[in-house]
Amino acid sequence: MNNLTILSNWDKAKQAIEACKTIDEVKKIRDQAEALRAYAKQARESQEVQNNIGDIKVRAERKIGEFSSKLSKLGRNENSASPHDGTKQSILKRAGIEHAERYEAIFSLPEDVFEKHISDIKKSNEELTTAGIIKLARDLVKDNRIESERKYRNKKIADIDVRKGDFKKVLSDVYDIDAIITDPPYPKEFIQCFSDLGLYAKEHVKKDGFIAVYSGQYHLPEVIKRLSEHLTYVWTFCLYHVGKKQLVNGVNIMCGWKPVLIFSNGKKKMRFSAYDVLISEKREKANHEWQQSESGVYPLIDILTKPGELVVDPFAGAGSFLKVAQENGRKAIGAEIL
């Protein structure tokens, strides 16, 4: 039975895929399905017809992913003149398979999730694509990582004093703060929180203690103005984002850094020479919408405080800053309204 005959019957096609003993066999079915899908699209066949063919294609790709996942890196084959013959890479190359990790991602999906996705796409009459299934697989990996990180973080900050509620109330009894390091929300509707923060810092931070405030650029002049009503402006540090940048639609600018405003409760000069560029190695949004990278706050902790001193974060979010402070031998107290 040739491939075209197999593809004309869904059950036979599925059986043929499952019966494949080599990666070359299933690759032929996958290629035949891809060619037939392209023909159906060009002939303007219904989406149902195209998806039935696409169903065969992605099942073949899942089977390729299974074969690829099981291939071991055998190293050099003693009976071959080629130093790479027999390796996973060479086997895939001979089969004409590139980017095998894409197929392995499809294979990594639990069978029930894979089947439900195909069923849902067919019912909605949307286009069933390899890219859509790969995205589903990667999203699932991401969700699992986020859940794992959330459990780990919750365990790490379990013994940190994070109080639920408005910081003006729940942190009203906290005085003699050595440094406030915090990341308030940036949208315009939250601009009042910078005034509230400035007043709180004036009353609760030690004389000549420091305040480091993350800020977006869009409302930066207003943020500085409000904080300056009660505090002494010292400097603006640059938190440089390694890798992915963010488009600020309002001004059509690709933003690669974030201002970290340094204020003090009186003293203008830093206690020792400090470099004003911080490095954020990755964006971390696993536990909170506005969560910041821990890597960027490590140097701030060292610059602004000494071991044993008190660090407060009135907008603690996921507790990243407090976790770093505690890991570096500081006392940590925070508040989060959510």
Strand order of the biggest β-sheet: 1-10-9-2-3-7-4-8
Q: How much of the polypeptide forms β-strand, as a percent range?
A: 15-25%
The domain tally reads: 2
Query: What is the overall silhouette?
Result: elongated
Largest sheet: 8 strands, mixed
CATH T-level fold name of the largest domain? Rossmann fold
| Secondary-structure element order, N to C | HHHHHHHHEHEHEHEEEEEHEHE
Write up this protein.
This protein is of the alpha/beta class and 338 residues long. The chain folds into 2 domains: 3-138, no CATH class; 155-336, Rossmann fold, CATH 3.40.50. Helix content is 48%, strand content 17%. It contains 13 helices and 10 strands. Helix 3 (23-42) runs antiparallel to helix 4 and helix 6 (100-108) crosses helix 8. Residues 1-6, 73-84 and 284-291 have low confidence and may be disordered.
